[in-house]
């Protein structure tokens, strides 16, 4: 029985139902006729990002398994695979089920598989022909998985997770990894298929050198496992990287010439739409480290919402809330349009600042300091459409059952269903 | 065209599809066989809360229009209406559409209706027979609505919003309300049907007396509108109240004997499942103000998740993240069970403290200070199931397409579909 995630894999048919009377509408102008707020993906930036990251991975001799939890949008999985991705990374068993239901056959569950109901989901995927890998870091979990999959008459491919002291999951040192590998070796139902890590939880001074050190540790542990003949698969996977330090991981894996014997896999997720917050900041660091990489990723995800009320001088209340957009950081007003206007007729949001976000409302402080600003205030109208950027795309995607793919003229090209 | 909210009103049929192979399953034991994490509503507490709040409203001579945005769960709307609710309050036009699609016919949109696409949604609901009320606070919006609904040949019932200085939406004073009422009077397509307020944005020292003062201001402005013959409907609505100060609003409305001429409407939303955070705190204040009210509401919403890793002494990583539970405040561990165990066999979480929440993981610090605590640490197992409470139920509901209604024995009775 399902706990309520990814339930719509069967319901969201290819006909793109919109819940609107009259049924299917796949075109529309974002500035007139689309119910706002709406989450929007710009196709130009999306296409750029897909190609950029695939090129990056290939240039470093690595495979790309984009983390699908970011978007949980099968149409984006398909674009990632079409661009050359090796598989899709997921965070939970229901996410794996949803991806497989939409045609993704190589699934990297970069997480421990816990609980018999979740094991049952993965068992059914394996029986249906999926190539699933999951992660282990404890004797207890290895025993649970070994027992469960043996009883099902199946073999499960697992990667040992190497963590860091003070980090998240994962074995804390070399010896722990080796002991766990021996145990896996003794479990008939488990196949040790590789080593996994996540550098996003490495913290402290000089994070770059710490991440580099961690990447080298992954290489050394993988080589030790290989040396002792503990990998059962002929081309073991070594995988790491979130969306902030993937360049350092890729560089170490390339320097170690991992690709000659292993399958190095990178797993960034947020790159596909990038962001206007933490990943924009992370990219500044990346481009400073790697001046050879031109331009970088472009933000592709915005949320469009309307001015709902102008109740006091200097205050605009926008029909946009915590239900609509990520709020790890407060959203950033980017541009403004008149309802029914043209995409090219961009109005200013200079000096606008979101000060508070409620469930369904954003408070925006408007510049009111001088006469010029006073004029600007008068010129804003109830109904004006404001494009917002946010930090952390994962937490915007999960607020929508459908996002709108638009072109630069703000014409809706396609609806992107999600299956959270 | 829809912006992506409430899209599943037509997809979620009465058969409660679960996305599971094999189709419908409406029973199950939460401690074995249910994929976790899962959001859970306890039926006992739910039934108590439904009856408690209905009784409260009736005892104060008020109607109840529970705010549906909290849950967006039609099965809960139906229970609220069956308990005696007058209608359902919603925050957006797509939410109104979703509620109407599930049989709710009296819809109080306690928000400005902005944008032609949203007006079109409401127009279609009116054409289909819905009784819709929305809120206005500006000349600009009144003109937009008047023009739009005149062109559609429809009449829209509006309530003027009275706000507070430094607050959110709403007219800022008596004169502004009266001027707006005159304008509405001149718009053939608009019917002035009442006055609306929201005391949840009243802030400052001595909030109780400020909220009380604001409630009296609502009463006086409504009486002035009535005196000047500006209400078009024979029994104008006066409505206010969120989930924290509804007692003060109800008391003032009762003291003013509003029910003799007006229809007083309360709109709390979170009461239906209460919470383990801000509304628990608010209820302490309420029960101190009103010792005559026995017991109060009970928390009914929890999220069940499993211990995923025990990588270091004193640290448990739980498979529970920002994708699963509200995080205005960090979630609170309530109880623990063994997977496959009985609901009565509750294990301790004494001293457990969530220190960080990532997208799919929670970090829990375990008590390790003494030998006794050390024993406790050894006794925790990977796979143990932990029930968590959270603050702000709206932001837990919107993370799930389905929640599980359970009895005290943790048996699943029903799945509650949501239509965010």
TrEMBL record, chains A, B:
<dbReference type="InterPro" id="IPR051466">
    <property type="entry name" value="D-amino_acid_metab_enzyme"/>
</dbReference>
<dbReference type="InterPro" id="IPR029066">
    <property type="entry name" value="PLP-binding_barrel"/>
</dbReference>
<dbReference type="InterPro" id="IPR001608">
    <property type="entry name" value="Ala_racemase_N"/>
</dbReference>
<feature type="region of interest" description="Disordered">
    <location>
        <begin position="1"/>
        <end position="24"/>
    </location>
</feature>
<protein>
    <submittedName>
        <fullName>Amino acid deaminase</fullName>
    </submittedName>
</protein>
<feature type="compositionally biased region" description="Basic and acidic residues">
    <location>
        <begin position="1"/>
        <end position="23"/>
    </location>
</feature>
<dbReference type="Pfam" id="PF01168">
    <property type="entry name" value="Ala_racemase_N"/>
</dbReference>
<dbReference type="GO" id="GO:0016829">
    <property type="term" value="F:lyase activity"/>
</dbReference>
<dbReference type="InterPro" id="IPR026956">
    <property type="entry name" value="D-ser_dehydrat-like_dom"/>
</dbReference>
<feature type="domain" description="D-serine dehydratase-like">
    <location>
        <begin position="300"/>
        <end position="407"/>
    </location>
</feature>
<keyword id="KW-0456">Lyase</keyword>
<dbReference type="Pfam" id="PF14031">
    <property type="entry name" value="D-ser_dehydrat"/>
</dbReference>
<dbReference type="InterPro" id="IPR042208">
    <property type="entry name" value="D-ser_dehydrat-like_sf"/>
</dbReference>
<comment type="similarity">
    <text>Belongs to the DSD1 family.</text>
</comment>
